[in-house]
Amino acid sequence: MSAAASLVVAHQARDKGDLADLLGALGLPCGEDDLVRLLPHLTAPTPRRPET
User: Fold this and answer.
1) Residue 25 exposure: Cα atoms within 13 Å on the Cβ side
2) So what's the pLDDT on residue 28?
3) Which domain of life does the UniProt lineage start with (predicted)?
4) Residue 48: is its pLDDT beyond 90?
5) What is the rounded CA–CA span in Å between residue 47 and residue 3?
6) Residue 49, domain member (yes or no)
7) CA dihedral defined by 36, 22, 44, 4, rounded to 10 degrees?
8) What is the spatial distance between Cα 52 and Cα 50, in angstroms, rounded to a whole number?
9) What is the domain extent for residue 13?
């Protein structure tokens, strides 16, 4: 169950630090090994449009 929840969190995180904070706040495993496993699931940042 926690693996599925961790994947959902990874899809919402902006970066590794954000992922660690979110996992920790939810009481999910957030050790270095857990983070490395989830890094490929981080959401890619969306490019900003230039202001005109």
Assistant:
1) 8
2) 95
3) Bacteria
4) no
5) 29
6) no
7) 70
8) 6
9) 2-41
Averaged pLDDT score across all residues of the chain: 87
Encode pLDDT of 19-37 as tens digits: 999 999 999 999 999 999 9
Q: Is residue 34 part of a domain?
A: yes
Cβ(38)–Cβ(26) below 8 Å: no
Question: Based on C-alpha coordinates, what's the Rg of the chain?
Answer: 13
Task: Output the six-digit token pair for 48.
Answer: 């900003």
Percentage, residues of the chain above pLDDT 90: 65
Q: What does the CA dihedral 30, 34, 40, 43 come to, rounded to 10 degrees?
A: -20
Tally of domains within the chain? 1
30 CB-near residues (< 8 Å, 6+ apart)? 19, 20, 23, 24
